[in-house]
Write a structure and sequence with these properties.
- The complex is a heterodimer of chains A (748) and B (229).
- In chain A, 36% of the residues lie in helices and 22% in strands.
- Chain A is globular and about 85 Å long.
- Chain A contains 25 helices and 27 strands.
- Among the domains of chain A are: 1-68 and 200-379, PurM-like C-terminal domain (Phosphoribosyl-aminoimidazole Synthetase, Chain A, domain 2, Alpha-Beta Complex); 406-423 and 572-748, Phosphoribosyl-aminoimidazole Synthetase, Chain A, domain 2.
- In chain A, the strands form five sheets. In chain A, strands 7-9-6-10-8-11-12 form a seven-stranded mixed beta sheet, with helices on both faces. Chain A has a seven-stranded mixed beta sheet with strand order 22-24-21-25-23-26-27.
- Chain A is α+β, with helices and mostly antiparallel strands and 748 residues long.
- With 229 residues, chain B is α/β, with parallel strands linked by helices.
- Chain B has one domain (2-228): 3-Layer(aba) Sandwich (Rossmann fold), CATH 3.40.50.880.
- Helix content of chain B is 21%, strand content 25%.
- In chain B, the strands form two sheets. In chain B, strands 2-1-3-4-11-10-9-6-7 form a nine-stranded mixed beta sheet, sandwiched between helices.
- The longest helix of chain B has 12 residues, at 217-228.
- Classes of the chains: A alpha+beta (748), B alpha/beta (229).
- The interface between A and B is medium-sized, with 35 and 32 residues.
Chain lengths: 748, 229
C-alpha cells in the first residue's frame, strides 16, 4: 500500500489539533502507538473517537462506582447502544438518555430535534420499537430574551421531530436557573420494547460481514460534531453552526419502521445494526468492528453523497443524520436491500469486516488509513485532581436559620406556585404528542409517565429527575437525591423501581473543582442505585458545558424505569373523594430550618441558592417500598412525592390535579413555619386514603418503619392548613400555577 | 364489519385505529399499504393520523397521488363510508373528497390536549350514536388543524348541514376560548354532501378505553358500525 502517512510527514499543527480537540500529549501518544505520523484521515478518526463524547476519557474510570448488574438486566453497561431490562411476560425494555446540549445552544430547533433523532436511533438500532420519549431540559432565567429563544426553539424542535415519528412524550422536566444561561441542557430519553431474545447488537460478529449504509446520503453537515461537543462554548461557537446537523424526521420514521422489521422478522440476515451518531461512519463502523473483534475495510467512494467535492475525511467524519449501518451476513445483501426499498430507502454496500484488526479506509481508489481498531477505540483515560471549589463550599455553609421566618405563608405559596420552576408546564407538554400508540395511562405532569404494554397486564412508569442546585451544594448527596426522587416518583404511581439510565452534564473535567463535582456525583448515583437495586444500564456524558461566564450548574439527570405488574392499580396524584384522609408519609410536618438548603423557596423568596443538602437513602428505600406495596394492595386514592416547594406545594398540586380542596386544621408546624411548609427534606410523600383503608395504611406504614401523619380530610374548594396559616381557594392556586409560562412566552 | 386502515409512509395512528376497531370492538381491520390498488371487499376506509410523506410541501398534498387513491375515489363514488382523522382529514381535503383546507394552527404551535367537540348533527353515518348538542371529549394532536373555507363554501356547508363537529367547552358551548387552532366557526369535522365521507381533526381512537382517560371515541366508531355494517 501507499504509505498512509506520506501526505503529512510533518507533525500536526496546533490548529489541526484544536479542530479535532486532541491535546498535543494525546497526539504524541497516538503517534507513538502507531509508530509513525498519522494521515489526515487517521488523525480525524482518532480525534473523534478519543473525544469525551465517544471515548469517555474523563468519565469511564468513574463508571466502576455504578452498580450495573441485576437479575433483570440483560446488557452490560457501555457495550451496546442502550441498556436492556427484562420486565417479564416475555418483554424487554430498552432505554437510554442522551444530551444534545452544545448543538441546542447554537441552533435550538435543529439541535434539539436531532437530539431526539439520535436517541431514537439508539433504541431501534437494537431492534426495539420506541414507545416513549422523555425530555429533561435546563435553561437560563426567562427574563432574558435569548433564554426564551432557546427554550421556545428547543421545545418546538423536540415536538417537531418526535411528533412526526409517532412516539409519545410521556414525561421529563424543565428547570430554569442562572447557571444554565447560554448553556442550555437538552437531554432526551427514549424507551423501546421488544420480545425477549430478539435484540441485536452493534457488532460485525466476525470477519466477512458486509457493511451496508442505509438512509440519508452523506453530506458535509455536522463535521466535527463529536469534538464540538467536547470543548467549551465561546463567542466563536456561533461559527461552528455547520457542526449542527439538520434533521429529517420523516426519513427517520421510515428508517425506524424498516429497522424494527429487519430485526424482528429477519434477524438471520444480519450480524448487527448500528446507528450513525456522533462521529458518523467512523464510530458506527469502527465500534462495530471492535465489538466483533475484527478489522474493517471501508470504501468511502461507495458512500452515497449529498454534495460534490467531499474528501474521504469528510465522508468518514460527517454527522449527517438519519443513517444506519447494517452488518449483513454474506448472501443476504439483496434481501436487506429489498426490505429497505419497500420503505423507500436507499442502501449501499461500503465495505466488510476483516480478520486483520485494522481499520482500512479507501478514498479515491487509494488506501488513506490503516490503523489498529484497538488504537482508535482505546483512548487514554484520566482521573484528575478533585477538590471542592471554594465558592461552592461557601454556599453550602450558608445557614437558613439566620433568615427571618415566613411572614405571610399564603402569599409566599402563591408566589412559589407561579415561579417558573414549579409552575405548570403544559405550555411545553401540549406541544408534544403524548398519546400516540394509545398506551399512555399517565400523561406528563404526573409524578411519572405510565405506559401500558399491550397484550399484557403490565405497565412501565418512567421519569427523569435532576437537581443541579443541590448537586452544586453537595455533589454526592445531591446526585443521590436525584436518584431517590426519581425512584419515589415512579413508586408514587405504584411502580417498583427497576433500572436507571443517566446523563452527566458537567463543566470542564480538567479543572479539579469540576472533576470533584463529577466524581462525587457519580459515587452518589452509585450509592443510591445500589440501595434501591436499580442498576445503571446506559447513559451519556456531556462535559465541557462552559461559557465565558463559567461552568454549567452540575446536573446529573436520572432516567428511571419502574414496573407496574397490574396496570389497573396505577395511582394518580390528584385528591379524589370528599372525606378521604390525607397522610404525610416519611416525617413529621415540623422541620429544621436546615431543610431549606438548596430549596426553591430560598431561591424565590430570599434569592439564595445555598445551604446544606443531605440524603437518607435508608429512609428513601423504606418509603419507596411502602408506596409500591400500598399501591399493589390497592390502599391508595392518590400519591404524590414532595419535591420543589416542599409540603405546601405538594398539597396544592394534589388539590389542583383533583380539583378538590383539603382541610388540615390540626397541623403542628413547629418552630420554623417556612421549613415546615416549604423545606425540601427528602423521603416524604403525600397519600390520600379512603376511610375504609385508613387502618390498613397506618399498619403498613408502621410495619415499614415509615411515619404516617394524619393531616386532614379531602373536600371543599379551599386548601386550609392549620386554620388560616394557609388558606387559599383551589381556583386561585390553579390560576397562579397555570398562568406563568403562557404569560412569559406568549404574552397571554 | 371489515375496515381498511390506510397506511402512507409517515402515517402513525394506523395501529391505534386497528387496535380500537379490532381489539376493543371486535371487527376486522386490515392495514393497507399505500402502494396497493384494490380495496374490494372492505366496508369502510379509515384514514389515520400521522405525517404522511413528512407533511412536506403541504399536509396531505403528496398522499393524494398515492397508488391507492384511485381505489379510494371509487369507494367514495360508490357511496361507501370513509372516515379520516387528523392527517387523514387533511388528505381527504387535499384529495377533493371534502371541502376546505387545514392551515397551520393560529398559535403557530403544535397542540396536544384533551378537547371537547359538540355534535352538531346526530343523524349522520358517523355521529348517529350521539345526541345532537352532546359534548364529546376527544384528544387532539396536530400542528395544522386550522380549518379554512371561503365565505361562499362556509355558507353552503351551513345550509347543507355539513358541519358535524365544532370545538366547544365541557358544557358544550362553542366559544373562542375553546377553539384550539383558529378554525373558522370552530369547525372540527365536516361531512361531504352525500354523507359518506367525514373528516375530523380529533382522534377517536385515543378515547376508546377508560384506562387511557375516556371512551367518547366509541360514539364515533359505533355510529359507523351501526349505520354501515
Amino acid at each position: 500500500m501507499a504509505e498512509p502517512g506520506s501526505k503529512s510527514q510533518t507533525s500536526a499543527s496546533d490548529e489541526t489539533l484544536a479542530q479535532i480537540a486532541l491535546s498535543r500529549d494525546e497526539y504524541e501518544q497516538a503517534r507513538e502507538r502507531l509508530g509513525r505520523e498519522p494521515s489526515d484521515v487517521e488523525l480525524g478518526m482518532i480525534g473523534a473517537l478519543w473525544s469525551e463524547h465517544c471515548g469517555y476519557k474523563h468519565s469511564k474510570p468513574l463508571f466502576r462506582y455504578f452498580p450495573t448488574e441485576g437479575p433483570q438486566i440483560l446488557t452490560e453497561l457501555g457495550t451496546e447502544n442502550a441498556g436492556a431490562v427484562d420486565i417479564g411476560d416475555g418483554w424487554v425494555v430498552v432505554m437510554k438518555v442522551e444530551s444534545h446540549n452544545h448543538p441546542s445552544a447554537i441552533e435550538p430547533y435543529e439541535g434539539a430535534a436531532t437530539g431526539v433523532g439520535g436517541i431514537v436511533r439508539d433504541i431501534f438500532a437494537m431492534g426495539a420499537r420506541p414507545i416513549a420519549l422523555l425530555d429533561s431540559l435546563r435553561f437560563g432565567p426567562l427574563d432574558d430574551p435569548h433564554n426564551r429563544h432557546l427554550f421556545s426553539g428547543v421545545v418546538s424542535g423536540i415536538g417537531g421531530y418526535g411528533n412526526c415519528l409517532g412516539i409519545p412524550n410521556v414525561g421529563g422536566e424543565v428547570v430554569f436557573g442562572e447557571g444554565y444561561s447560554g448553556n442550555p441542557l437538552v437531554n432526551a430519553m427514549c424507551v423501546g420494547i421488544a420480545p425477549v431474545g430478539s435484540l441485536v447488537g452493534a457488532t460485525t460478529g466476525g470477519p466477512g460481514a458486509v457493511f451496508m449504509v442505509v438512509g440519508a446520503d452523506t453530506g458535509k453537515d455536522g463535521l466535527h460534531g463529536a469534538t464540538f461537543a467536547s470543548v467549551e462554548l465561546n463567542e466563536a461557537s456561533e461559527e461552528r453552526r455547520p457542526a449542527v446537523q439538520v434533521g429529517n424526521p420523516f426519513l427517520e420514521k421510515l428508517l425506524m419502521e424498516a429497522c424494527v422489521q429487519l430485526v424482528q422478522e429477519h434477524s438471520d440476515w444480519i450480524e448487527g445494526l448500528q446507528d450513525c451518531g456522533a462521529a458518523g461512519l467512523t464510530s458506527a463502523c469502527v465500534e462495530s468492528a471492535a465489538r466483533g473483534g475484527t478489522g474493517l475495510r471501508l470504501d468511502t467512494d461507495a458512500v452515497p453523497r449529498r454534495e460534490a467535492g467531499m474528501t474521504p475525511y469528510d465522508v468518514m467524519l460527517s454527522e449527517s443524520q438519519e443513517r444506519m449501518v447494517a452488518l449483513v451476513k454474506p448472501g443476504h445483501e439483496d434481501d436487506v436491500r429489498k426490505l429497505f426499498e419497500r420503505w423507500e430507502l436507499t442502501t449501499a454496500i461500503i465495505g466488510e469486516s476483516t480478520a486483520d484488526g485494522l481499520t482500512r479506509i479507501i478514498g479515491d481508489g487509494e488506501e488513506v488509513a490503516a490503523i489498529d481498531v484497538d488504537l482508535l477505540t482505546g483512548p487514554p483515560s484520566y482521573e484528575g485532581g478533585a477538590w471542592q471549589g471554594e465558592a461552592d463550599a461557601a454556599l453550602a455553609r450558608f445557614d437558613p436559620s439566620t433568615l427571618p421566618d415566613v411572614a405571610d405563608a399564603n402569599a409566599a405559596l402563591l408566589r412559589l406556585l407561579a415561579a417558573p420552576n414549579i409552575a405548570d408546564k403544559s405550555w411545553v407538554t401540549q406541544q408534544y404528542d403524548q398519546q400516540v400508540l394509545t398506551n399512555t395511562v399517565l400523561v406528563p405532569g404526573s409524578d411519572a409517565g405510565v405506559v401500558r404494554i399491550k397484550g399484557t397486564q403490565r405497565a412501565i412508569a418512567l421519569c427523569t429527575d435532576g437537581n443541579g442546585r443541590a448537586v452544586r451544594l453537595n455533589p454526592h448527596a445531591g446526585a443521590a437525591r436525584a436518584v431517590a426522587e426519581a425512584a419515589r416518583n415512579v413508586a408514587c404511581t405504584g411502580a417498583r423501581p427497576l433500572a436507571v439510565t443517566d446523563c452527566l452534564n458537567f463543566g470542564n473535567p480538567e479543572r479539579p473543582e469540576i472533576y470533584y463535582q463529577l466524581s462525587q456525583a457519580v459515587q452518589g448515583i452509585g450509592d443510591a442505585c445500589r440501595m434501591f437495586e436499580t442498576p445503571v444500564v446506559s447513559g451519556n456524558v456531556s462535559l465541557y458545558n462552559e461559557t465565558p461566564s463559567g461552568p454549567v450548574t452540575p446536573t446529573p439527570v436520572i432516567g428511571m424505569l419502574g414496573l407496574i405488574e397490574d396496570v389497573t392499580k396505577v395511582v394518580r396524584m390528584g385528591f379524589r373523594d370528599e372525606g378521604d384522609t390525607v397522610f404525610l408519609l416519611g416525617a413529621e410536618v415540623a422541620q429544621e430550618a436546615a431543610t431549606l438548603g438548596g430549596s426553591e423557596y430560598l431561591a424565590v423568596e430570599h434569592g439564595h441558592e445555598a445551604g446544606a443538602v443531605e440524603v437518607d437513602l435508608k429512609a428513601e428505600l423504606a418509603l419507596i417500598r411502602l408506596l409500591t406495596r400500598a399501591a399493589e394492595e390497592e390502599l391508595l386514592q392518590s400519591a404524590h412525592d414532595l419535591a420543589d416547594g416542599g409540603l405546601a406545594v405538594a398539597l396544592v398540586e394534589c388539590a389542583i390535579a383533583g380539583e378538590i380542596g383539603l382541610d388540615a386544621p390540626g397541623v403542628e408546624f413547629g418552630s420554623r413555619l417556612d421549613a415546615a411548609l416549604f423545606g425540601e427534606a427528602g423521603a416524604r410523600a403525600i397519600v390520600s386514603v379512603a376511610p375504609a383503608k385508613v387502618e390498613a395504611v397506618v399498619a403498613l406504614a408502621a410495619e415499614a418503619g415509615v411515619r404516617a401523619v394524619d393531616l386532614g380530610r379531602v373536600g371543599g374548594t379551599r386548601l386550609r392548613l392549620g386554620g388560616d396559616v394557609v388558606d387559599c381557594s383551589v381556583e386561585n392556586a390553579t390560576a397562579a400555577y397555570r398562568e406563568t409560562l403562557p404569560r412569559v412566552m406568549d404574552g397571554e | 364489519m371489515r375496515f381498511a386502515v390506510l397506511v402512507f409512509p409517515g402515517t402513525w395512528s394506523e395501529g391505534d385505529c386497528q387496535f380500537a376497531l379490532r381489539d376493543i370492538l371486535g371487527h376486522e381491520a386490515d392495514l393497507i399499504w399505500h402502494r396497493e390498488t384494490n380495496l374490494d371487499g372492505y366496508d369502510a376506509l379509515i384514514f389515520p393520523g400521522g405525517f404522511s410523506y413528512g407533511d412536506y410541501l403541504r399536509c396531505g398534498a403528496i398522499a393524494r397521488f398515492a397508488p391507492i387513491m384511485p381505489a379510494v375515489q371509487r369507494h367514495a363514488a360508490a357511496g361507501r363510508p370513509i372516515f379520516g382523522s387528523c392527517n387523514g382529514f387533511q388528505i381527504l381535503c387535499e384529495a377533493g373528497l371534502l371541502p376546505g383546507v387545514l392551515m397551520r394552527n393560529d398559535s403557530l404551535q403544535f397542540r396536544c390536549r384533551p378537547q371537547y367537540v359538540r355534535v352538531e348533527r346526530g343523524d349522520t353515518g358517523f355521529s348517529a350514536a350521539c345526541d345532537e348538542g352532546q359534548a364529546l371529549m376527544l384528544p387532539i394532536s396536530h400542528g395544522e388543524g386550522n380549518y379554512f373555507a371561503d365565505d361562499e363554501t362556509l355558507a353552503q356547508l351551513e345550509a347543507a348541514r355539513q358541519i358535524v363537529f365544532r370545538y366547544c367547552d365541557a358544557d358544550g358551548d362553542v366559544t373562542a376560548a375553546s377553539n384550539p387552532n383558529g378554525s373558522r366557526d370552530n369547525i372540527a369535522g365536516v361531512i361531504n354532501a352525500t354523507g359518506n365521507v367525514l373528516g375530523m381533526m380529533p382522534h377517536p381512537e385515543r378515547a376508546s378505553e377508560a384506562l387511557l382517560g375516556g371512551e367518547d371515541g366509541l360514539y364515533i366508531w359505533r355510529s359507523i358500525i351501526e349505520r354501515w355494517s
